[in-house]
Write a structure and sequence with these properties.
The protein has two helices and seven strands. The protein is α+β, with helices and mostly antiparallel strands. The chain has a single domain, classed as Thiol Ester Dehydrase, Chain A, CATH 3.10.129.
Length: 137
């Protein structure tokens, strides 16, 4: 574990939110700020397609997760469902790189929350995402 922790940027700790979808991608890490929940991981074979690039589906799912958690926090820790999610892929993320989702809550309403995220692979911007979330009943 000490070797693993040395490979994780300062401020990140094991992600507390577990789900059946993300379990195969562990270990996941997160960093909470007053405004957002950042999610990161060290990309490996379980995160990659046959060409060794981080799969776009994983990037999309983690961006959705980080933006949703950030919006839930902004709305007072309510449960949300995704209404819309768009992702633009800009550059390839590769195995061995630190993948980090950096979300930002853009607007909060009584039932809807709008967020954006930049996804970095090491220091390279590899994707952007936008999402709309609605409070769940």
């Amino acid at each position: 574990m000490a070797e693993e922790a040395a490979d994780v940027p300062d401020g990140f700790a094991r992600h507390w939110r577990k789900s059946g979808l993300t379990d195969p991608w562990e270990p996941l890490y997160s960093r909470r700020t007053a405004e957002a929940v950042f999610i990161g991981l060290r990309a490996g074979p379980a995160h990659s397609n046959s060409r060794g690039f981080v799969h776009g589906g994983l990037i999309s799912a983690l961006a959705d997760n980080a933006m949703g958690l950030s919006c839930g926090h902004a709305l007072g820790n309510v449960r949300l469902v995704t209404v819309n999610l768009t992702v633009e892929f800009i550059a390839a993320a590769k195995q061995g790189q630190w993948l980090e989702i950096r979300p930002k809550v853009v607007r909060v309403g009584s039932m809807l929350c709008f967020a954006t995220a930049e996804i970095f692979s090491d220091d390279t911007l590899c994707a952007r995402a936008n999402a709309i979330f609605r409070t769940a009943k």
